[in-house]
Each structure stands twice: as structure tokens, then as C-alpha cells.
Amino acid sequence: MRRYKRTVVGLAFTTTVVTGVTGWASGNSQRPVTGPPPGTAAWVGDRSLGRALPDPATAAPGRVAAFFAGLGAGARQDLVRRHPQVVGNLDGVPVKLRYQANSLALRGTPHERLARPGRQILAFDPRGRGQVVEVYGDLERARHVAVVVPGSDIDARTFDRAGDPYGTPAGMAKSLRAAAGSATAVIAWTGYTTPVGIGPDAARGELAEAGAERLTRFTEGLAARGTPRPSLFCHSYGSVVCGLAADAVKASDIVVLGSPGMRAGSVADLRTGARVWAAKDPSDWISKVPNVRLLGLGHGNDPAAPGFGAQRVPAERAEGHTGYFAPGTDSLHAFAAITQGDLR
Fold this sequence. Notes:
Layout: H1 2-21, H2 40-44, H3 61-69, H4 73-82, H5 84-89, H6 95-106, E1 121-125, E2 131-136, E3 144-149, H7 169-180, E4 184-190, H8 200-203, H9 206-224, E5 231-235, H10 238-245, E6 253-257, H11 267-270, E7 275-279, E8 311-312, H12 330-339
Parallel strand pairs: 3-4, 3-5, 5-6, 6-7, 7-8
Antiparallel strand pairs: 1-2, 2-4
Helix pairs in contact: 4-6, 7-12, 9-10
């Protein structure tokens, strides 16, 4: 009975936080972007090669990789020019072709800055608030790979905002790569529709469920290209995404930081072969959010609590909710060691 009362009180507090900040009728509810990329209908109907192209809605990344392996350079370039949005977003396509296709797809859009020379955009979906995936380092030759999965308020516009360098996926990825070294490639993955603010979407799991499917397919695409299994670094609501994807995602490690919960009671409930790690610094406001799950609200137990079973990542020198990747922190040092396979 006491445990039930604590759960109800926690749920009431969570509801108060959510409604007090934005209100249930705030208009911030987001509809997840799902399904194949824009331009799919034209791609499926294209018979310029004398045969059907792999259907983005049904073809597994391995099938896509095999299809492109059988094409000559001229045919590949023709598909990039004719269908940049599909080629740029299709998991299993060779990395450099995706960079080229997304550079074309970004031209003339409000996000054209992402196409500046030197940037390696692995995916760009203009639907909704926009989704972006960027690579830092040489993904084709990297010995170690990491993927940063962000939380709320991240989209094509805020993906690399300068005002909060270590609270954006771009800033997190750049900092981790600098710490992990040139043999590592780090991917900033904003490949799902994130919640806006601390509203109803952040307290529920619908956006995370859609994100988990996309993250799983993304890691399957990496595997199809022969990329080493990545370490996932899942921040805030991104840890809900990683928790729901844990049993299917192809990853060596799942590291959650500033997590409100993973929709699981323990590491065992995640049913994953990946190593699971958790970090929470003493000043992170996420500690004030009750770890409950009831009536569709909340995300369950705290992954950083001893009883959850995750390996602890030191974070005493990190500050706030977005300070885990700041240079000089013990958390960043540990993240680099995990990526390199040196921390066990």
C-alpha cells in the first residue's frame, strides 16, 4: 500500500510538472515522422535501370547494400541526381553517396547551412521540424563508432545551435570525437521526432516508440555497410528511445545520461546483449522528476540507481542536465573509454 501511495504521489507530481510548465492543451503535441523518405513514390516508379529499385518501405538495409554494390559508378550517380532525398536517407546506401545526395537535397532549403563544405550529412528529412544525422570522422575506416541520441527540443534548426554547445547532438558528437581520437567516428543522430519542452509528449512514450524503430533500422544500416557496432549515448528523453530499442538495436554499449527512465524496471528487462551504463550528475534537474510509470505517464525506474543494474559512469565533475560532454569532465573521459572499449 505504501508503494502504491508513493507511485500515486509521484504521478501527481509528474503531472503537475508537465501541466505547470506547458499545460496539457499547450499545442506542443508532436506527430512522429514515420515511413519511407520523401520522394519514395518517384523512386519506386523509376525503371531507368531496367529493373525495380529496392522499395524503401520494405527493403532491409542489407538488401539495399547489395543492390548498390551491383551498380556501376555511372548508375549510382544517376540515382543520386534523380532521387537525392531517397538516396540520402536510405539505410544501406554507401556513406559517401549519402553525403553527396544530402548536399543536393539541402540546397535551397532553410537548412542549407548543413550543406557547407566539410559537413558530412548522413540523413536529412525535411518533414515535420526536420531530422538530421551528421558524421564526425571517417565512418568508413573508423575502428570505433559512437552514436549520440538526443532528447527534447532537438530538430534540424536546433541540431547545432551555438548557445548550448554540449546540449546539442552536434556539440556532444564533436566533443566525444575530440576525446576519443581520430580512430573514432561519432554520429549525431537526430533521426526521430523529439518532444517539445517538458510537456505531455516528454512524459509519454509514443515519440520514443517511433524513434526506437528508426534507431534500430539505422544501426542495421551501419551493420550492412560493415561498420563496427556502435556505442549509443542516449541523453534525457533519448534514453527512453534507447530503452525501447535495446532488445533489437545493433550496439555494443548503451550509455544513458540524465535519464528519466528507460521504460524498464532493470537491465534484465531490456533484454539486450549490449553493456548498459548510466550517468547522472549531482546537479542535474532530472533527479527531481519522479521515476514512476502509471496510466501511460512516466518512464519507470532510474537507470542510475544501484538496483537497476547498469554500470555506473562517474559524473561528479559534470554540471547540470547538458554538461556531460563538457571537456575536462569525468563523464566525457569515461564516454571516450567506453567508445574505445577500454572501460569494462
